[in-house]
Amino acid sequence: MSTRSGDDTKTVDEVLADADSRMNKSVEVLNRDLTSLRTGRATPALLENLMVDYYGVSTPLNQIAAVSAPEASLLIVQPWDRQALKDIERSLQKSEMGFNPSNDGTVVRVPIPPLSQDRRKEMVRVLKKKIEDGKVAVRNVRRDALEQLRSMERSKLLSQDDNRRAQDRLQKTTDACIALIDQVSSGKEAEIMQV
């Protein structure tokens, strides 16, 4: 199955390994993206994507401060430079998360208000969109790999039977990634809806 003609042609195993790697990266990106999706609990990941205007430069919060969650409904942001306190507080107020931070001169306290039922439903809608985007990314990888396999078959680098076997392996990988995404989705949805 590892037919090769020239240095620029991939083998079937390389095409499938590349597709598997790219699908898994899509799942990882989705998981990372979902950590910033707000649930009822305080977690430092909520502020992971927050940008702060720090001395005129848009800087990720985690590069200028430490974020901790000492309680289930409170985040503490401790900047390494106290001059950044006001900038951090302003960025938190402007964020779409609905935070009302307070600054005590040393740290910024961010109380996490409980989610209303309507807000929970909205978060689930956002979750479903992100999940669908993740599935589309996995399917796009499958489509690219299928095109490569079909091209190999047209170029007579791959027999019809080998192509069919390779496509079956590719489909199993795709199904496994989609099942993993569905599992992540149901866990996150339960977390959002938990009162």
Topology:
Layout: H1 12-35, E1 51-54, E2 57-60, E3 65-71, E4 74-79, H2 85-94, E5 102-103, E6 108-111, H3 117-154, H4 160-193
Antiparallel strand pairs: 1-2, 3-4, 4-6, 5-6
Care to describe what's here?
With 195 residues, the chain is α+β, with helices and mostly antiparallel strands. The protein has 2 domains: 12-35 and 117-193, Topoisomerase I, Chain A, domain 4, CATH 1.10.132; 44-111, Gyrase A, domain 2. The chain is built from 4 helices and 6 strands, in the order αββββαββαα. The protein has helices at 12-35, 85-94, 117-154, 160-193, and strands at 51-54, 57-60, 65-71, 74-79, 102-103, 108-111. It has a 4-stranded antiparallel beta sheet, covered by helices on one side. Strand 5 (102-103) and strand 6 (108-111) form a beta hairpin. The model is unreliable at 1-7 (pLDDT under 50).
Brief characterization of the structure:
With 195 residues, the chain is of the alpha+beta class.
Kindly provide the radius of gyration, computed on alpha-carbon positions and rounded to a whole number of angstroms. 23 Å
Q: Which CATH class of the largest domain?
A: Mainly Alpha
Low-confidence stretches: 1-7
Q: How many strands, what sense, and barrel or not for the largest sheet?
A: 4 strands, antiparallel
Shape: elongated
